[in-house]
UniProtKB/TrEMBL annotation:
Key words, A-Z: Golgi apparatus, Hydrolase, Membrane, Signal-anchor, Transmembrane, Transmembrane helix
Gene Ontology CC, one term: Golgi membrane
Subcellular localization(s) per the UniProt record: Golgi apparatus membrane
Protein name: Glycoprotein endo-alpha-1,2-mannosidase-like protein
Disordered as annotated region, ranges: 53-74
Topology relative to the membrane: Single-pass type II membrane protein
Domain of life: Eukaryota
Biased composition regions of type Polar residues, renumbered to the chain: 60-71
Organism: Chelonoidis abingdonii
Short name of any one Pfam family annotated for the protein: Glyco_hydro_99
Recorded GO MF terms: alpha-mannosidase activity
Length: 181
């Protein structure tokens, strides 16, 4: 009986220590740590403006106004320097490099030989099969294409990304990383 009581007391002590440790760890965190209160998307959340509702007339809904000008750009969101992405510049296609670079890598076999035997072996064959879980909207692009780079930078700006860790392969075939603000 004493042994059971001792084990129960030790288990209760460890559980209590874990709970108090977790509470103290969470208590040290502040909203200013990491993301601020103005993190992307929070400006759309109806927190403070819940009581302020505006009614819209039926005419305004049924007759939308025409666009003012075609060259007017939508306002860009503020940049959040807490958001980082890695941008890889080693992709190539037949138009710029003469062959597909990094889109046609070797197919990774399954770890189980029985399952691996039922899948194809060799290399991926772009442009249909690019060796990626998601097919890019711009297709198998080249990182040297200025239009692709411009589109990617516009997408980063629209997503309010503040830091870009630019990763590239140098002439010495080493992977290098730069951080751009």
């Amino acid at each position: 009986m004493a042994r059971l009581r001792r084990r129960a007391c030790i288990a209760l002590f460890l559980f209590t220590l874990f709970i108090f440790g977790t509470m103290m760890g969470l208590r040290t965190l502040k909203p200013s740590d990491g993301f601020s209160d103005l993190a992307p998307g929070l400006e759309l959340a109806p927190i403070a403006e819940q009581g302020e509702r505006r009614s819209v007339s039926h005419e305004a809904i049924s007759q939308p106004q025409a666009a003012t000008s075609s060259d007017a750009k939508a306002p860009t969101p503020p940049v959040y320097y807490d958001l980082h992405i890695f941008y890889y510049t080693w992709y190539g296609n037949t138009h710029f490099e003469g062959k597909y670079l990094h889109w046609d890598h070797v197919m990774v076999p399954h770890w189980d030989p029985k399952i691996s035997a039922s899948y194809p072996k060799g290399r991926h064959s772009p442009p249909e099969d690019i060796g990626s879980s998601f097919y890019p909207e711009l297709g198998p692009y080249s990182s040297r294409d200025p239009e692709v780079l411009e589109e990617h930078m516009n997408q980063l700006r629209a997503a309010a990304i503040g830091k870009d860790a630019l990763t590239y392969v140098s002439s010495l075939s080493r992977q290098c990383t730069l951080t751009l603000s």
